[in-house]
Amino acid sequence: MVHKADLVIIGVSVGLAVGILLASLVFFGIRWYRRRAHLRKCANDNSASTLPIRRNGVDTSNILSESFPNSVTVKVSTYPAKTSPLSKWNKNGKEQLASASGLPRYSYKDIQKATKNFTTILGQGSFGPVYKATMPAGEVVAVKALASDSKQGEKEFQTEVSLLGRLHHRNLVNLVGYCVDKGQRMLIYEYMSNGSLASFLYDEEKPALNWEERLQIALDISHGIEYLHDGAVPPVIHRDLKSANILLDHLTRAKVADFGLSKEEVYDGRNSGLKGTYGYIDPVYISTNKFTMKSDIYSFGIILFELITAIHPQQNLMEYVNLAAMSSDGIDEILDKELVGECDPEEVRSLARIAHRCLHKTPRKRPSIGEVSQAITKLKQRRLVREDSTMSFASEEFSGVVGCIELQQDQLKKMTSIAES
Ligand SMILES: Nc1ncnc2c1ncn2[C@@H]1O[C@H](COP(=O)(O)OP(=O)(O)OP(=O)(O)O)[C@@H](O)[C@H]1O
């Protein structure tokens, strides 16, 4: 005979279980819904591919037609031409310096103040030191002070600034101002609070990037390069793509830095006279001295392998990659240890296949950056679809369990009423 008290306890427990299950169902339902929304957004991203609308005509708001007749016609879709927040500074009383590029030009004194007399150093590159600067309106920027022994004259510098000032994309570290004053030349960029991709991959004190973040970073970089190669008119070849030139914002979204800068002489570690960085340089460029878009694709392939393995190209990355290529699952052996067991090996192999194509020894057999972007997007979408179906399966299972519990509750109610009568 079932006691009334026991029935109450059973009823309460079952009620609690149902409550927990319903809460879980709501939680998973929300996650599932968000995934679907994200998937849809991804598909839209892909179709837009963040490429700007190309215009062959002259955008009068943006183009310096006297100095560059028919030359630069970069049009922006994701970064519509708008007043730079920095230009407010100029308007608000500071000396308004005429700028041929349309970018705000600052005096040496302005920058000196914003960098606390050049004490806020972020790092040192081959061009010179980079400082963090806080502008009066509160905007934080990065100031790249170009070495003063550069052979580049002021006019050439202005030309470079004019060209760079027209390249705007959400996956490029955009130029927001400059300074030519007192023999100094400085470029002012948007500030990237998470520093370089290289620091995330190689500095012990930085947290490891997970697989999802790495895939997103690969896609962001490809979109940045796609803008330079296919969106900018005339196209821009980066010439120095490397993980140190990929900067991450506060959400670890990636932007390509240092594009369009004419480096006068770069010491690449072994081949002086070549432009670029040892480990990332296309071997075909070394033998022919001809730098093409496909040389950028080669460097991008190296970055993809850095994302997979966290092995630096100057630490024999390619030797490991070539060894791994000898077996179909060889890449698993050189996967970054932070990712082992944390990602789908099939996805890693797919990304490695894309990277291998970028490194093809015949440049014309390497994919275009558009093809690379598409391949990475597909890889990301397949992953979302898989997760999506796992979620649907989980929610179906939950519905089944809830159904069973409801049935049991009904039976319990019946038993209780029998016991009471
Ligand atoms: N916009 C920025 N926001 C934040 N940090 C930056 C920015 N630009 C550069 N840095 C940091 O400043 C340092 C030097 O950068 P820079 O681009 O001058 O050199 P590099 O890319 O490391 O080397 P190289 O000049 O040889 O290509 C790097 O540590 C980089 O992370």
TrEMBL record:
It comes from the Eukaryota. This is Uncharacterized protein. It comes from Arctium lappa (Greater burdock). The lineage of its organism: Eukaryota, Viridiplantae, Streptophyta, Embryophyta, Tracheophyta.
